[in-house]
Amino acid sequence: MFNKILVALDIREIDKSAFNQVLSLAKATGAKLMLLNVIAPDENNYPNPFIYSGYEYAWTNESLLTVYEEQWSKFKQQGLETLRSLAEEAKAAGVEAEFSQNFGNPGQTICNLAQTWSADLILVGSRNLTGVKEMFLGSVSNYVTHHAPCSVLIVRETAQEMASRPTKDQLTTHI
């Protein structure tokens, strides 16, 4: 059935129930997991360069540039630690798992890795965007559904999961 399942994760908003679902599926089918986090610096919740209203920009102030680089370093490290932890959890459950953290366009990166890793299935979450928000913000799950080289399983959050998700302010205080 499935031998290789690519799990596209957003480490900023880990959906533990979706991870548990794919873990159960992998155990039942004997599939290997590839846990993927794609960092797209142009999206929200990522460290942003400081923007001044005056003449000085962050890139001309060495200390601000250093702070920005440190934030990115912590952010990347946090992503790798989360992926490593999930891979260890999968291995403890008897599921072979590896992980990757890539930079770029999430939809394209997911589809490219699915192709090169020869995935049988891609599991991707949905942010439940509709209408104008989906049109302007785009939809990774929509892109993957139309461009993936294999089957795609979209996992939607329940209303309870969306309500318990950390806010942007809660996420940025940890960086």
Plain-language structure description:
The protein has 175 residues and is α/β, with parallel strands linked by helices. It is 47% helix and 19% strand. It has a five-stranded parallel β-sheet, with helices on both faces. α3 packs parallel to α5 (140-147). The N and C termini lie far apart (41 Å). The relative contact order is 0.20. The mean pLDDT is 80.
Secondary-structure blueprint:
Blueprint: E1 4-9, H1 16-29, E2 32-39, H2 62-92, E3 97-103, H3 106-117, E4 121-126, H4 131-137, H5 140-147, E5 151-156, H6 159-164, H7 168-172
Keywords:
alpha/beta; Rossmann fold; 7 helices; globular
Give the total of domains: 1
Strand tally is 5
Q: Give the radius of gyration.
A: 18 Å
In CATH, the topology is named: Rossmann fold
- Topology pattern, helix = H, strand = E: EHEHEHEHHEHH
> Major sheet: order of its strands?
3-2-1-4-5
Enumerate how many helices there are, as a single number: 7
Output the CATH homologous superfamily: HUPs
Give the helix proportion (percent range).
40-55%
* Shape category: globular
How far apart the termini lie comes to 41 Å
Give the CATH class: Alpha Beta
Uncertain segments of ≥5 residues (pLDDT<50)? none
Based on helices, strands and strand pairing, what is the structural class? alpha/beta
